[in-house]
Design a protein that fits this description.
This protein has 250 residues and is of the alpha/beta class. The chain folds into 2 domains: 159 residues, Vaccinia Virus protein VP39 (Rossmann fold, 3-Layer(aba) Sandwich), CATH 3.40.50.150; 73 residues, no CATH class. 36% of the residues lie in helices and 26% in strands. The protein is built from 10 helices and 8 strands. An 8-stranded mixed sheet has the order 3-2-1-4-5-7-6-8. Strand 1, helix 2 and strand 2 form a beta-alpha-beta unit. Helix 5 packs antiparallel against helix 6. The radius of gyration is 20 Å and the shape is elongated. It starts with a helix and ends with a strand. GO terms for molecular function: S-adenosylmethionine-dependent methyltransferase activity. This is Methyltransferase type 11 domain-containing protein.
Length: 250
Amino acid sequence: MNWYRWLFEHFKLPEGARVLEVGCGCGRLWRENLGRISHWQVTLMDASPGMIEEARAHLKDEPRTFTYSVMDAQEIPFGDASFDAVVAIHMLYHVPDQHRALSELRRVLKPGGRFYASTNGREHLREVGDLAAHFAEGETLERIRSAHTLNPFRLEDGLEMLSKYFSEVVLHKLESSLVVTEAEPLHAFILSGEATADLRERPSAAEVRRLDDFKAYLRERIAAEGAVYITQASGLFEAHGSGFEKATIR
């Protein structure tokens, strides 16, 4: 399953639509779906100049489709009713003031326009914390666990939040498992976050031994079971209209 193509399948936009993506990152959503864009005009926006330049480099062969802007989702310098759709892929939980951002995103949508926002649920990557207990303890372990569970915009509470701004909110859920058959990539992934920065950069001799033992444990488990399964619980909110009327899960 290609996540970005799955997202794109849920977009309901007219030919020639004006689209704003906030927090576009390197533009991968569009790179994965270049052949499916129907004469849209897409503005890619990110607070990071580096991300905007990376997106521009990846999409340089499509100058008529894409424009780029470095800006904050909490202060969008576009007029009211400027876009047929606004897209926010796994980014709202990074915004300091989510309600301010949602108010701005709602403002720039045309009447009848659609807002698409993806995020994770509380069960997403839940096995990572259990695996981390093989090498981490105390505050480090709690930071690893909370990195995958503390999210102010999750599948479980996004409906309530979005219903303050849109009358129709639908959640499209994608639940699957990540099947890991090699120890090294899983070991690297679990150690890749901010919670384990000290372990990566300044490990003590004892921590080095624990990390080596953890990698050996992963190898032994994969050899015995064939794979390690990691829960993926993600989804896409599709919203339109104004004010609260109803919300639906699909």
